[in-house]
Amino acid sequence: MHLAGGQKGDDVATRNLLAACRGVRHFVYISVIGADTVPLAWLRTKHACEEAVEASGIPFTVLRAAQFHDLTLTMVRGLAKLPVVPVPGMRLQPVDARDVAARIAGLALGQPAGRVPDLAGPADFDLRELVRDYLTVAGKRRLTVPVRLPGQAGKAYRGGRNLALDGDRGTRTWEEFLAER
Hints:
- The protein is of the alpha/beta class.
- It has one domain (10-179): NAD(P)-binding Rossmann-like Domain (Rossmann fold, 3-Layer(aba) Sandwich).
- Helix content is 42%, strand content 18%.
- It has helices at residues 10-20, 41-55, 69-79, 97-109, 127-138, 151-158, 174-179; strands at 27-32, 60-65, 84-88, 91-92, 114-115, 119-120, 125-126, 143-147, 168-169.
- Strands 1-2-5 form a three-stranded parallel β-sheet, sandwiched between helices.
- InterPro entries: ComplexI_NDUFA9_subunit, NAD(P)-bd_dom, NAD(P)-bd_dom_sf.
- One of its GO terms (molecular function) is protein-containing complex binding.
């Protein structure tokens, strides 16, 4: 099972891990929804890892997950530190790490399945909704201002290329996650 990753070098590390895993009966890799459609360096690296897994000759399963609640919280918390919160026009489907862990465990115990349906959270949100929910729970008042994400990545996010249109949905909601904070 390969669940680690980072901004740089993940593709090299994945190829090294695959070379060390010759003879393994089932290699499980977690990726990110939009790895092949959102033009960000980190996502391109995740897609290169997927391709390396697929080309390795090792029986595999690849799961693409949406942004975890924790990552979403880090993002909105960072935005909310500013006195005026810039809110890019984009939608997210935050998923709980426990939902992903349960799905990965089930996949690891099963047979290699190739690329499996994506896993997203139970609801779709505009980023402004996620920011608003965080501000409410944190007891903060901030002016929010819509901003347009520039470039090809912005176009991809505005076009929903980071979203699971089909696939599976987790059960633990963003609101439940925030209530525990």
